[in-house]
Amino acid sequence: MAARLEMSMESLNSFPKPMRALVIGSSGGIGAAFVRALRASPVEIQVEELHRHSLPSIDFSDESSIQNAAQNMAASGPFHLIINATGILHKSELMPEKKLSDLQYAQLKSVFEINTFGPALVMRHFAPLLDSQRGVMVMLSAKVGSIEDNRLGGWYSYRASKAALNMLVKTAAIELKRSQKNAVLLALHPGTVQTDLSQPFRGGSAARHADEAVADMLHVINLKMPEHSGNFYTYDDQQLPW
Asked: In total, how many domains does the chain have?
């Protein structure tokens, strides 16, 4: 695994050195793995992290915290890489809906707040912090958010929240091409990863370690240039349909 991380660091050669990176949602499994990988780099990378208990904190149930966090982070920028690694699939009292009769307003609101509304405001407040020459913002999405790829149904609120996030990424990328021509905004599917989010669903050994998933995603991120902005990719660099 250490060798894999070293390879991922070497693959960040499209970014300037020293590099400045920000990971939002760094208390989660994938977010923490991004922080580990970036801090393990043999070259200098300034890594900042935000989560609900960081200083400053960021909490998607509190709109003002997103703006405040961006204002606080401005002094550490501009950033060459901003990763939003937040997300929710379930919690103890809410499991993914298998059928229409499972839909509940409270669950839809809770899932959209974390998977869609919060990331939308991250794009609003943090996109201006991207470096003007090489700035990449990554929103972790999910393959099940692809409408065209939906063959099994179910998981209503999770699928819909990620599909809505994908539309926000696409729309924001169009605007950024006019105002920040070198910016790259991506939706990225990490695959099935060994985290609390996937724990009840991963099917034995099907899920990969978070460090492995992050190494793959950093390789993909390194390849993406302004002409790729607004697209939806997998961890192994396949472009997904919307």
From this structure: 1
Tokens encoding 68: 């405040």
pLDDT digits (tens, 9 = 90+) for 122-138: 999 999 999 999 999 99
Handedness of CA 18, 24, 26, 30 (dihedral sign): negative
Asked whether residue 239 is domain-assigned, the answer is no
Q: The domain spanning residue 106 has which CATH number?
A: 3.40.50.720
Give the tens place of pLDDT for each residue, 221-237.
999 999 999 999 999 99
Range of the domain at 99: 2-234
Residue 45 lies in a domain: yes
User: Is residue 241 situated within a structural domain?
Assistant: no
67 domain residue, yes or no: yes
How far does CA 41 lie from the centroid of its chain? 20
Instruction: Convert the pLDDT of each residue in 2-30 to its tens digit.
Output: 545 554 556 699 999 999 999 999 999 99
- Report CA-CA distances (Å) from 176 to 12, 16, 128, 135, 184: 23, 21, 10, 11, 8
